[in-house]
Amino acid sequence: MNTERKEPTYLYTDDQVAERSAIARQFIETRRKLNTIVDAADNYLVKRFYNIDHNTYLEGVIPAKYKELMGLVVSAGLRCDDCIYYHVIQSYRLGVTRQEQEESLNVALVVGGRSRPIGCVVTAVGRVVRVRPASL
Amino acid sequence: MNTERKEPTYLYTDDQVAERSAIARQFIETRRKLNTIVDAADNYLVKRFYNIDHNTYLEGVIPAKYKELMGLVVSAGLRCDDCIYYHVIQSYRLGVTRQEQEESLNVALVVGGRSRPIGCVVTAVGRVVRVRPASL
Amino acid sequence: MNTERKEPTYLYTDDQVAERSAIARQFIETRRKLNTIVDAADNYLVKRFYNIDHNTYLEGVIPAKYKELMGLVVSAGLRCDDCIYYHVIQSYRLGVTRQEQEESLNVALVVGGRSRPIGCVVTAVGRVVRVRPASL
Amino acid sequence: MNTERKEPTYLYTDDQVAERSAIARQFIETRRKLNTIVDAADNYLVKRFYNIDHNTYLEGVIPAKYKELMGLVVSAGLRCDDCIYYHVIQSYRLGVTRQEQEESLNVALVVGGRSRPIGCVVTAVGRVVRVRPASL
Amino acid sequence: MNTERKEPTYLYTDDQVAERSAIARQFIETRRKLNTIVDAADNYLVKRFYNIDHNTYLEGVIPAKYKELMGLVVSAGLRCDDCIYYHVIQSYRLGVTRQEQEESLNVALVVGGRSRPIGCVVTAVGRVVRVRPASL
Amino acid sequence: MNTERKEPTYLYTDDQVAERSAIARQFIETRRKLNTIVDAADNYLVKRFYNIDHNTYLEGVIPAKYKELMGLVVSAGLRCDDCIYYHVIQSYRLGVTRQEQEESLNVALVVGGRSRPIGCVVTAVGRVVRVRPASL
Fold this sequence. Notes:
6 copies of one chain form a homohexamer. By secondary structure, chain A is mainly α. In chain A, 74% of the residues lie in helices and 0% in strands. Chain A is built from 7 helices and no strands. The longest helix of chain A is centred in the first third of the chain and has 20 residues. Chain A is globular. Chain A starts with 13 loop residues before the first helix and ends in a 5-residue tail after the last helix. The relative contact order of chain A is 0.16.
């Protein structure tokens, strides 16, 4: 099952997203600081794990944007707020529309219930709105 | 966000899947029995919940097959074995290939870890193999 | 907050429930075997934990039957099948009606979603039906 | 199982709770903002889900206050902090005493353990104390 | 943080454990079948994940036996029955005593509660007992 | 299985940890406030639970430091941020090195996945770094 993979084409950089949303900026900045610490730790197993993680979301038989939305759904289901921010931003960078994000979050809602993802869903839907500039 | 929705086009019926896989058949039969009991209970809130659940997976801005795969990923992440069987079968009925199922399960693996979905992943991948006839 | 507590009054013994339902009987028998093993282990921390667990479900400012139903709801939310059987049986022994069990499981459904408790909900509703004799 | 349902009788409005507790006020205000965003999204499946959620907690064969406490217990078990705040406030509005809240949280503690709900339990017990004015 | 790692020294092979316990044998056989299917799938990301997994449990600054027990504790906390079997067997192969297994499971019990790991704890303690021959 | 237990020997007090790390200090102070509220509630079941919790981490057949690391691993797996802080601090007080913490967190990573513990892992590894003074 080793189909060719390639890097997805992002429509926006992290910095461009950060410019459009205070919440996204705060998340991106915090994540950079923590990643610096993790990089300094130089733990080879963590690095390998990150490598798998990176490869998982490449373009494949499934378009990268749907994989990011899958990551969003399972993150909402597992109530991982940081992961939700991450996949909301990543999917936005890939041109995913708000309608697509909402349809994905509906899956998280029926599968994961109100208790688990609903706080996340409410928050994430709010984030989506706020991440997007008024003109979009 | 009320885009038009429509029923997806299934390539196979439940019965056709059941004919191809003993495991799928067992799951489908058990599910029918339990659904009969639930139907007999005639609980209107459960029925409304099932209605939302049904509508969540219709064709929309996201193709139905990717929604079923999202359901598979979050089910694996939440370690809901029954849900995994369900979405493996549903996605198969929609023509999802084994490669697509595997790429989806990779997302579940990196997001949910070995402990949560791996038993499910191993099982589901096994199921996928066994659900499919040799010629596919 | 040390209100008086007392043992709840059970309408049925475990054995009487076991006589009415093959599923309940299987659960009760397996549980007895495992408890024998745990008792033989004679682990004082496990025993203390069981003591807290026992005291939690006594009659208090909240009637014991509602505490058993709370145990059922959180067990469904956490997808602990064994715990669901246990609390379905315990609440039945306290005279809880099927309507009360269903209303409780609705809370589990909206809070915990389809993926986590729904398999449990479907199963438990089925169990309830089967635990009860036709005349109830 | 379609017993008559009716709206519960609240002893306090959200605003009255907000006046008595800074923590409750902050939660209620944030929730209103997020709900405004969700309402604006006008997602019909989310709206249906909220409708089920609303109906789940009505007066039924189980008194509304015990359903709110069930919601509290499963929310603590699933470690949904926002849900805990919500059900602590809702049960308070229905006249639930602190003793009743504590007995409920004990169920969450033995079922969900220290890791999952204990932070929530500690927090929620603290919240309860702080939500209540000294004279209660 | 790249300390030298090396393979742990197992006191027993899988087959020797399988000879001593019907439950262990069943688990080991099922796992072999599923691993055969996964191997046949030849998914390079799953293979890399398994490689990290293997390296995680090598002898390091923490002795391998304590890492297996950590795996047991978190598996019990996450209620992954298959993972519990796996780590019970692995730790047994490394000479871990039943007392050590029980002390580890106590951590799982207080952290993860009755609902999540208790079924697992009860089961696992039973498994431990049954995996060990009477003379141990 | 009632081996002798005794209090572990801590190398540092909570206050000494608080002096070395702003993050640890904030956690320790908040925890003290909440514990004061819980103590005032004087709930005998919660007190018994805390007693079991305390006894679980004593020196036994497994050294206390490995039990704290087990607590860290399952807390990361269950994504209990407060518990992670607690066990990072406790294990630090027992002289656990950063290498030992990292090897433990690797177990959490492969078992619990990125979504659940990775935010915790990243955060906790960062905490570890920041808890330790530069000279360590």
